[in-house]
Amino acid sequence: MDGVPRFSKMHLGGIDYTASATACWVNDTNFYVWVRPLGAVGQRRLRFEFYEDGSVILHPSSFQNMNYVGNDLSLSYVNAVKNALVKNIISFSFSKVIPSVVEPKHICKLVDKVTVL
Fold it and tell me: What pTM does this model have?
């Protein structure tokens, strides 16, 4: 948790990678984890936001940002469609709906004990 990269093996999408991960506290309540499979383009960024009542909000994100990816994809599809209503639906879906589904915010609660069933 000192910002120094650590390396480990990971299996993602049927492919074995060596991953580089870095974690650090940004302030008293925000903890960041960045994970990047070496040899891949993307990076996962996780921000954990801790509250005094024990709740935690996990904000996942990616680099490339999923909003940018959604906008790029929507432009490709919108240019291929002639109907204005369909263009609007595609544009809205790719720019607003898909990124929030792919990278939703997670609201959690810290617990003292975990019971495995």
Answer: 0.64
